[in-house]
Amino acid sequence: MKRILAAALATTALVTPVLADETPITEFRIGILGGENAQDRMNSYQCLADYTTEELGVPTKLFAPADYNGVIQGLLGGTLDMAWLGASAYAAVYLQDADVVEPVLVKINLDGSYGYHSIGFARADSGVTSLQDLQGKVFGFGDPNSTSGYLIPSIEIPQAGEEITMESGKYFGEVKFTGGHEQTIVAVNAGDIDAGVTWADGQGNWEDGYNSGALRKAVDAGLVDMNDLVEIWRSKPIPEGPVVLRSALPADVKAKMTALVDGLHEADADCAYGVAAGESLGFDPITHEAYVSIVEARKAKSN
Q1: Distance separating alpha carbons of residues 39 and 255, to the nearest angstrom
Q2: What's the number of CA atoms in the CB half-sphere (13 Å) around residue 87?
């Protein structure tokens, strides 16, 4: 069924408003969102790049910009062909040009869902166990274009108490952007900030960094011992961001790449683990309709 759905989804590219450019490509360019250091991101995706080169018969280049906006602008400018975006980053692209990319696949959790959470956390020895304990303290967020690292917390956290506001110096002593999920995790673990938010599926064991997400990647990299950290807040479920393809790509390239990523977990579980940031069931088809609420939330924040 996955293969049938993926093939059907890829075929719909032929009838989208943006006509595919059937000029043969000479290279394929994959953008990788921030979240961990650039070299680790490149290492996690190198296997996918190798499979892509083999499948398409052209060189594959990986790009790991310093921030989310680098990938967003690369897609908008046509200098990137594919990326796995967070829902907010996808919304940012969509709101600037609704036709430039097509969402094709989404990561599936071990329970079959495709949601995750923004997780607030602190050091276990800090005495911080809730948002109320953070009054007057430094709260870290990853990137302004991150769904779990800023957009959703900025909406949901102020709903946790009438006195709580996201303005720096109002309730929290400082609201600070760290630059990415890994930076937030490292800063909290080192005691440089009092608490932070990051993303995780929220399934599995806390000690493992859950099954997938930034905490799992940090544990795998030896950056943290989860016994030193404690969860202090959890968002409502967030739709996992989509793998997107540049709409103007030749139709056969879009079909091949959709099928490649869709079948990655079955073909090479270790590669899929690195690309999906932990344990998953791989990727399944997805459409824009799954992200309408995130688009509206992002639009509302910008007004």
Answers
A1: 29
A2: 32
DSSP-assigned letter for residue 97:
-
Both tokens of residue 67?
């921030």
Which H/E stretch holds residue 148? Answer: none
Q: What is the pLDDT of residues 167-212, one digit of tens each?
A: 999 999 999 999 999 999 999 999 999 999 999 999 999 999 999 9
The H-or-E segment that residue 102 falls in is: strand 101-107
pLDDT at 19: 59
> Which residues fall within 8 angstroms of residue 241, CB to CB, at 6 or more apart?
84, 85, 86, 87, 88, 89, 90, 106, 147
Chain position carrying tokens 């859950």: 210
Would you say 56 and 28 are in contact if contact means Cβ atoms under 8 Å apart?
yes
Query: Which value, to the nearest 10 degrees, does the dihedral of the CA atoms of residues 63, 64, 70, 76 take?
Result: 40
Q: Please answer whether residues 45 and 274 qualify as being in contact, where contact means their C-beta atoms are separated by less than 8 angstroms.
A: yes
Element (H or E) spanning 268, and its range?
A: none
For residue range 62-98, list pLDDT tens digits in order: 999 989 999 999 999 999 999 999 999 999 999 999 9
Residue 3's closest CA among 250, 303, 217, 283?
283
The pair of structure tokens assigned to 234 is 């959890």
Percentages of the chain per state (helix, strand, coil), in multiples of 5: 45, 20, 35
Here the tokens at position 8 are 């059907």
State both tokens at 128.
């911080």
Angle, alpha carbons 203-206-207 (nearest 5°) = 135
CA-based R_g, the chain, Å: 19
The burial class, CB within 10 Å (0-12 / 13-18 / 19+), for 268 is middle
